[in-house]
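Quick question, first post here. What does this chain look like in 3D?
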Amino acid sequence: MAMQFTVDNFDKEVLGSDVPVLVDFWAEWCGPCRMLGPVIESLAGKAGGAYKVGKVNVDEQPDLARRYGIMSIPTVMVFKNGQLADKSVGVVPEAKLAAMLK
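> Answer (accepted):
Ran it through. Tokens below.
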């Protein structure tokens, strides 16, 4: 299951992670976000410690959304060694997200 990232745990869990981290910026009311949700959960189930997968609800965490300039959702970002390594906006296939983690 995907983790829930908040202002309180983002720096530790994402920026301080020693494995790649996929972060899904989403909202409950967003239809495309709901379409991407099962893809995110599938990736989370396959992580096996090789990477982390988590979600940021932009309605509940507006400071994080502002911090990363989120203008459209869903936006998926991959962080490696505390740095933004890749970004995708919109619904994309699982294979593309998996490739972003490599």
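The CA atoms of residues 58 and 65 lie 6 Å apart.
The mean pLDDT is 97.
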